[in-house]
Design goal:
single chain, 443 residues, alpha/beta, three-stranded mixed beta sheet, 17 helices, binds zinc ion
Length: 443
Amino acid sequence: MAQGDTTDASTSPPIEPVDTPQQRLYNSRVVLTTYPSQLGIEPIPLHWGAPTASARGPVVVSRSQDTFGKRNAIGAGGGSYCIYRALAVAIGALAPNHRPDFTMTEPTHQIGPFPAWSDPEKIVSMDPWGHATVEHYSEFLDQGVDIRPTIAITKAHMKLAEIDDAIQRGFLRRDGEIVTEGGELKVVKVASEPVWYLPGVAQRFGIEESTLRRALFEDTGGMYPELITRPDLKVFLPPIGGLTVYIFGDPAHISDPTKRLTMRVHDECNGSDVFGSDICTCKPYLVYSIEECAREAQNGGVGVVVYFRKEGRALGEVTKYLVYNARKRQEGGDTAANYFKRTEFVAGVKDMRFQALMPDILHWLGVKRIDRFISMSNMKYQAIVDSGIEIIERVSIPEDRMPADSKVEIEAKIADGYFTTGEVPTGEMLKEVKGRNWDEIAH
Ligand SMILES: [Zn+2]
């Protein structure tokens, strides 16, 4: 019998031992999936939305030998980086049974717990106790159960040319608290990897859990058969990017209703954010929000930027560049009127960010009200308001911060419902908003 035919650890016959590197790393039997009633399968209880960390139980997803039978989650830890971990093991750089030494890794700041942490409907796409593994689940770690944090909290300084410029302009001052004498921003950072409570995710999108499971199974190339065979396991760690929170000022102020909160929720646009591509408003908007956040903190409030790894509206950079080409080459040139059409022709949809899960991180942070929301996105606004958080003021990107070639994008978005304090362009006006021609991009 070939290894690929083996479907069940309890019934499959052992394979003749062969002395290959693979043989030394793993058991000879490949366990393709598991079943709820299978011998040796006894998941550690996990009660999503329970009132305390210990009542909730740890999220256990590792397939390491002494944890395998105790797993209570499907997928793999580390988001998309699970693939690099696999590579490290395969080439012998990482022992498959390596356990992290968590000494001195604990959070630098206390955040929460907040009531939303024990509300099974408020937080469904991250583990609210993901940073407190050592604090709350040490008894399991001591027993040898392989549990990994999915959240880490640290602090740092940021040095940005644009912040130096804001100091020069007198918009920010060196106060030693928020902005150092050297012009650096003090920041508290939170990184979070995705942990999906499948019934909650399905409910958020108004679909059946079984439909969600089937789609996840099919569109990951059948990578996680337990999505189908283990309906008793309700938590899935998907192989996607996570998010980072940048906090300017005292994190305790975020949940304090007497303090003002300025916030931006930003979705990754690597070409603009890091490399300064000028076809969109992403980096200028991000920089503007960092300045506004720092200023709010200097005025006694707090600022928060949440950065999601959802490149190119979660369509990815390859799709994004295909769309750029089609936009620039189409008859009549790159116009705001055809902006979304070109994305839909290539991707089938104009956006795959589906903001319904986004507010989870805000509830994890204890946000109740956002005084200044630095975003024009109607989808982000609606998702946040629908989740029970009040938004007092929406702030659009100042006109003078927009690169000329980004007008196509921003005018198309405004016509599509994005927030603006300015004029909403009509169909005829959108045809007039043109980007740079293809032959003007000379290399
Ligand atoms: Zn962009």
